[in-house]
Amino acid sequence: MTIASIDVKGSDNLGVFVTATFRGNFAKTIGTGNLKHAAAALVLVPKPGKALSAGLVTIGAGPVGKLYRETKSTDVGAARNGNKLVFFILGPGYANVQSVEVETIQSATGLPRATSAVSQDIPNFGPRLWDKFISLHPIDHHVQTADPSGLSCPELKNMLASIDEDLADPGFHVTVEPDVKAALSKFRDTVQGLYDKCAPPVTTPPAVVGTFAWSFFGSNEVAGTGVFTGPAETFSGVRIVLPSSFVITNHICPSQLPSAAISGNTIACGGGILTTGQSFTLNLQTSPFPTAGMGGQIFGVEGNSTVDGPFTITGP
After folding, report:
1. Helical packing angle, 178-198 and 153-168, nearest 10°
2. How confident is the model at residue 146, as a pLDDT?
């Protein structure tokens, strides 16, 4: 029941999440032997002139024990795991807290009875019993000054990781009461919402864009001019596909990609290198002769596998 350290994370738009680390196995020893009536408590001490103190108390043996509260929030919980004990309270009010205390009590007496027959209901102390409880002499007592400035993105990220570790533990789902699991899931959703606001947005890298346009170069020939824009890329080829009613009968590939392979209405030019931002030209003769608005599609080929496109060809 000796506390080695406490870690406090809280903000007024979230609540407070406290991890107490003990020198021994807290979950195994509390509620047994001479610690049969022992308790561990989280106490939120208010600033002068602010609201009354608040907190949570966990007693009893086993991985769950029994939880009591003196809070307006019902979204609260405590989870035991070996030498660690986690308390959390979801809701506003942390800006009025002066300090956060975790203490252990040798013999906790006069605790309230549950106000409902439903086992997962968390009994509320009420001011009189709470004041009596916090006046008990503690075995051990750790205090940390509250920091109302809010939580940084790394702190929120670490808190999410800690909560997810608990939620992913099969033993947690077996031993923790349903209301505590529901409250912790709600607490997690709130932390995730705050983290989403401060985490850098995921950006999609700019895509390659191809533009190409035909113009008439005689009655049976078109000349096309194009360029690929966007991130720096190296193209090993371009491929043009005309409407299926046209057959390519002759060609002049771009000077950067002089080799051609033709199949019906498709031509692939390669055998060289074309880079982003380089203008290129390509001439075609077709049967039947090219017509106004013939159009087609153009693709950029990177290496042997990556293909950018299709991009729509305009004209002639």
Report:
1. 150
2. 79
